[in-house]
């Protein structure tokens, strides 16, 4: 990545009604798997072209073929089943608390799916490798593949009354997640990938919800332990997976946000990155892609004043709020980047949205016309920074 201020999406883009309808038809046997795969390929090519036309530096797949940012693994890993929140209710001991969580989340219990451990985990040959191959067939630009992080996967798939039949604890389950992820990393690096991004939004649930309603759908199932103990477990999982990434081939990135399922900012988490600094410094990431466009993320100095972080790790600075329809101004993005540059060197700063634009396939937080306008502002701010800081444009 020779240029300064590289830009990319975090991951997801809206799938659209045609894909959602085709999913229903596929399940009903009204179309073939080949017809469905052809549609996913066509729509992936379209979102790649959108990104190239907007001049993003690194291209993602848009996660067009995924039901949501984590549940799709139920189709990829043996021993995992996809269940709706309503279906999971039968296996929840404290049903009243769980129903209260769903109300807080503003999430329909029947429409959002989760991947649940219902057997011994088995690597079936690929998780995102085929998606990566498809992405690379449509672009010559650098590419990023996104994966739900190992802590997110372990935490979200552990449903005690089902999973404990196969694993004695969430921690034992996590060791198998590590094993499977290490195999997939080797697989996708053999294909060729410039950035591997692990999404770990649930980390903020650990540190920002003490004494408050829990507001992460995917974290609602497991009993929450002491935050320090939980972060140590998360750090172990993430570090074990990131250590497998051959840095001569790929950049290892960690993405963290505070939730991205609703336009109602008041129900999303708030707090600076301070409680996560130890984890950030220990896991061995090359790049931290972090939410920063909203005041809920705290001050930049809370992260960048730490000697273990500043200029030791590159920052993917979140400068676009995916949940707001209006495009951010070029000046606001430029000024936020300039603020970051008072702490870190210019070659350590990247630009990206806070999160994806469609965390759940049937519940996107924005639409393409708005998304394009927002990305155009980010690209214009990037170009302004490049002119100011470097003549390699």
Secondary structure: number of strands:
8
The termini sit apart by 12 Å
Radius of gyration: 20 Å
Structural class category? alpha/beta
Element order: H for helix, E for strand? HHEHHEHEHHHEHHEHEHEHEH
Q: Please write the CATH class name.
A: Alpha Beta
**Looking at the structure, what is the overall shape?**
globular
Number of domains: 1
> Which CATH architecture would you pick?
Alpha-Beta Barrel
Give the uncertain stretches in residue-range form.
211-217
Order the strands across the largest sheet as they lie in space. Answer: 3-4-5-6-7-8
What is the residue-mean pLDDT, rounded to a whole number? 87
Q: At the third CATH level, what is the topology name?
A: TIM Barrel
Helix content: 25-40%
Question: If you had to describe this structure to a student in words, what would you say it looks like?
Answer:
This protein is an alpha/beta fold and 393 residues long. It has a single domain (17-389), classed as TIM Barrel (Alpha-Beta Barrel). It contains 14 helices and 8 strands. It has a 6-stranded parallel β-sheet with strand order 3-4-5-6-7-8. It has a two-stranded antiparallel sheet with strand order 1-2. Strand 6 (287-290), helix 12 (300-304) and strand 7 (314-320) form a beta-alpha-beta unit. Helix 1 packs antiparallel against helix 2 (33-54), helix 6 (150-157) crosses helix 8 (170-191) and helix 8 (170-191) runs parallel beside helix 10.
């Amino acid at each position: 990545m020779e240029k300064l201020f590289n830009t990319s999406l975090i991951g997801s883009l809206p799938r659209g009604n045609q894909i959602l309808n085709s999913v229903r038809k596929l399940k009903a046997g009204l179309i073939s798997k080949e017809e469905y795969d052809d549609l996913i390929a066509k729509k992936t090519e379209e979102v790649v072209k959108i990104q190239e036309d907007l001049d993003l530096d690194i291209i993602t797949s848009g996660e067009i073929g995924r039901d949501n940012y984590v549940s799709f693994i139920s189709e990829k890993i043996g021993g995992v089943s996809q269940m709706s929140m309503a279906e999971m209710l039968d296996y929840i001991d404290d049903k009243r608390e769980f129903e209260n969580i769903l109300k807080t989340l503003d999430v329909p219990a029947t429409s959002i799916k989760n991947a649940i451990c219902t057997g011994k985990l088995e690597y079936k040959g690929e998780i995102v490798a085929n998606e990566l191959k498809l992405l690379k067939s449509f672009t010559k630009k650098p590419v990023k593949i996104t994966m739900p992080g190992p802590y997110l996967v372990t935490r979200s798939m552990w449903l005690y009354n089902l999973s404990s039949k196969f694993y004695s604890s969430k921690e034992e389950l996590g060791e198998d997640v590590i094993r499977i992820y290490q195999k997939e990393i080797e697989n996708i690096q053999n294909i060729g990938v410039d950035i591997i991004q692990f999404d770990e939004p649930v980390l903020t649930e650990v540190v920002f919800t003490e004494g408050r309603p829990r507001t992460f759908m995917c974290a609602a199932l497991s009993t929450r332990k002491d935050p320090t103990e939980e972060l140590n477990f998360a750090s172990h999982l993430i570090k074990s997976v990131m250590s497998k990434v051959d840095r001569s081939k790929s950049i290892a990135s960690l993405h963290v946000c505070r939730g991205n399922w609703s336009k109602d900012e008041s129900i999303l988490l708030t707090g600076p990155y301070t409680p996560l600094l130890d984890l950030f410094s220990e896991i061995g990431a090359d790049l931290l892609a972090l939410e920063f466009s909203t005041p809920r993320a705290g001050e930049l100095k809370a992260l960048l004043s730490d000697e273990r972080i500043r200029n030791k790790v590159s920052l993917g600075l979140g400068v676009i709020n995916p949940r707001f329809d209006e495009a951010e101004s070029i000046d606001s993005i430029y000024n936020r980047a300039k603020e970051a540059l008072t702490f870190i060197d210019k070659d350590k700063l990247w630009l990206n949205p806070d999160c994806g634009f469609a965390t759940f396939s049937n519940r996107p937080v924005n639409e393409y016309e708005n998304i394009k306008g927002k990305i155009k502002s980010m690209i214009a701010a990037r170009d302004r920074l490049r002119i100011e800081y470097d003549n390699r444009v």
